[in-house]
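As promised in the previous annual report, we have extended the structural survey to additional targets. Below is the entry for DUF2834 domain-containing protein.
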Amino acid sequence: MDALVERRFCHTPDMKLWHVYVAIAVVALIGTTSQALGYFDAGPVGGTVDFWDDALTSNDAARFLAIDVFLLGTAVFVLLAVEGRRVGIGAGWWAFYFVASLLIGISTFVPLFLAHRQRKLDAMDAAPSAGKHAVGQHG
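The corresponding structure token record, generated without further manual editing, is:
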């Protein structure tokens, strides 16, 4: 499946799927940061609290989106933990992606996790077949 996706989105031989994930993260960071500038004065934690307070109290549409993103994020974090363990991404990295997603934005740090994961998978594909067998033992 990854090879099919890579052929679809990577138009040159030097471009890798993880490049696409990083590009998504950069666009997400720019897009979300431009909308969050008003919360920066309160600091990373205070701004996050203020943001979620606004998201949950301003109107029904905002509440819907906040709840939807929260529940989707919960499922995504479970997937990140399981997949990270399967491909050998350490718990410290998972914790970083989790905290950064909460404080900065899930749309930025999930693609960065996916880039990290893809680089691990690419390295495993390049390794001898013994390395590929070890991946199956984790999951």
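The mean pLDDT is 86. The chain has one domain: 2-131. These points will be discussed at the next consortium meeting with the crystallography subgroup.
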